[in-house]
Here is the input.
Amino acid sequence: MTSEKDIKHMKAALSLARRGLGRCAPNPAVGCVIVKNGVVIARARTADGGRPHAEAIALEMAGDQAKGATLYATLEPCSHQGGTPPCTQAIIDSGVKRVVIGTLDVDPRVKGKSIKIMQESGIDVVQGVCEEECRQMHLGFINRITKNRPYVTIKTACTIDGKVASASGDSQWITGERARHHVHMIRSQHDAILIGVGTAIVDNPRLTTRVDGIEHNPVRIVLDSNMSIDPKSRLVQSAKETPLWVLYSEDGPNKKTLEDAGVILHQVDCYDIEEILRLLADEGINRVLIEGGAQVHGSFLREGHFDELLLYRAPSLLGGDGMSFTAHLEIFTLAERHNFVRIGEQVLGDDILERYRPLKDMGAM
Here is the structure.
């Protein structure tokens, strides 16, 4: 039976899980809280890199006090032997008497099996507490297992009239400092950041996470069909410190130079979004942030291969000569048009962040 206390402790586990977003691939970022006699005796999230799992860390923290306690986990604990022993066995061995689960693991090696194993061992198992919140938390992992693609977030900064660059192509600093700082926080919650080679050439970005107290940089990915990225760019020059993948279709003269610089090369059809996303899923990426430019945005939007759209909208106008972030979208018929649902907005200084999800996905939420 679910109580208000169960909801309270599951929300605490969700808060812990959120801290692991972007850090735990290929595993899900799980949060775990252990409570005994109304007192929290251990709390943990899945470690960076995906191991140890949250439950294993929390159980070790609790030690002998875990006997007779209640364990809260945002995702069903694993029951298969992987890189570490199954968490279900550790839970059973610890003497925990009750386990509260947010949502089931979609991995067919686990789904529902862990619950059965724990129940057969005499543990009282409750499932579905804060289920929708927990499912949303783990959508990256869920997508990768069930859809063979990561959770895809498209991010763009634009003016009130939807422009991302002036007619000359200048796109930097459309938004203010607080919005740019928030983008770095969003980057830290993704396993990878993806841009097109045009953005890499024009902006020469670093694509790193620059936030005090956060030491995590996602994998940086460049779509570069003919391998035209500049070997002297910031991205390539830092490839040995921060992972850089170049996805290419045809070999180019810079291939050996890029490999020597530490760039990881993946050959793929750079115009086939489904193939690109399958590659990322195969490489263990749960969450990818699409940062542009306009042509890349258009490709993902046109084919509907995204889960969330972030618009950082600045209080300015660029007018008819400015470049729209939908400039590379084909014209839709009324029946083909994409409809969205706004799921939130946030004021960031003079700018506003608007969050959208595709309407077609809202029924599955």
Observations:
- Residues 146 and 172 are 37 Å apart (CA to CA).
- The longest strand covers residues 151-159.
